[in-house]
Amino acid sequence: MAFYSTNDRTNIVDLKEAVLNAFPKDKGLYLPEHIPHLDKAFITNLEYYSFPEIGFIVANALTGQAIPESDLYQIVESAINFPAPLIQLNESLSILELFHGPTMAFKDFGARFMAKLMAHFLKSESRETTILVATSGDTGGAVAAGFYDVPGINVIILYPSGKVSPLQEKQLTSWGKNITAIEVSGVFDDCQALVKEAFIDNDLSQRFSFSSANSINIARLIPQSFYYFEAYKQIENKSKPVIFSVPSGNYGNLTAGVLAHKLGLPIYKFIAASNTNNVVPEYLESGNFLARPSIETMSNAMDVGNPSNFARLQNIYASGSGSTWNNIKKNLVGYSYGDLETLEAINEVYKKYNYIIDPHGAVGYLAANDYCKLFPDSKVVVFETAHPGKFDQAFEKLKISFDLPSKLKAFENKKKQSLNCTSNYSDFKDLLLSF
Ligand SMILES: *Cc1c(COP(=O)(O)O)cnc(C)c1O
Fold first, then answer.
1. 253 lines ligand 1 (CB under 6 A)
2. Model-level pTM?
């Protein structure tokens, strides 16, 4: 499979290059050139396939057989070694729990698959690769866990000081060995901007062979398509339109769903569920995309003011007749909510369904609920993108208590180790050159 850059259709690379060098000099993002339609029989018989089998078939289609099948199966099977159960709330609403991986956020899917894929590509090479990654909270921990102790790969994580939860901070700073955390005095968008600038810096590229582990890397999106199929498999009455409500920040998760849709999964619509950082819902409403600095909210992993994957969405929907905006609007609906509504939703889900949802999932729930008021004859799947235990402050406010799972407890007593940096690019560059 060839991959093209969203900024230049003639800039074509193979999978290895797209994964190891995720950010082309033209500043576009890679997408598969041709997305095949999967066999209809596969879609109608999904219940006969295990989650890793589904993952293998989807990955094989999206990578165009770039990896020997037995290797790819092993990558999928070892990366996706935890389930994604669907919990039904009522006739129209259900929740897909995406937090059963080691760091208890859905980012484990992307990070684990990417780590194994990169290790596969670097097996035969002597060069060391440095992964630069900006995190709004969950990516850092998942990437650290995925790459910890992987030979030949160093990881540098940038996170906004004071803007991630205490537990998230431990999950990304307490590793040591090949994992380094940098605490940036700024917001997530500053971290993302520093990373993007470093990728195209010629001085740095003489010292480092950089790669990205953010959702600008297509290797993150491929495994995120798997669980759309896995969710669809578990829906009981498929005669109603199936809608996914995706709590969104950088829009990697939603874009992965669009890839699943292109592969032939009958998804009726996607709900772009956002917090007050609502540039995409606003675009869907007005046709204007206005990136702006992110605002701090309770669902901090969605505090993104300039979502990277918007470029991919634009590109995918630009092909076909009609304007890009009209095409996107056929598949996507947008909703956004503030922290107060999010808290109320957590409370409502607890009282009504005895289910504890985290602030990100709660935004997805609010959007799904509002959608169902208009279209009650739907099957809406809300993605629960992280375990509530990662965001205990919200639950303290609501006086909802629960035991922290042992996977999370293990981080509480670990020691934070991080370097400090301003959001100024030359400071960041000096810091990297001092390594
Ligand atoms: C990263 C993250 C999101 C946003 O996902 P995107 O792919 O960036 O849109 C939502 N919820 C949680 C818990 C996350 O960690």
1. yes
2. 0.94
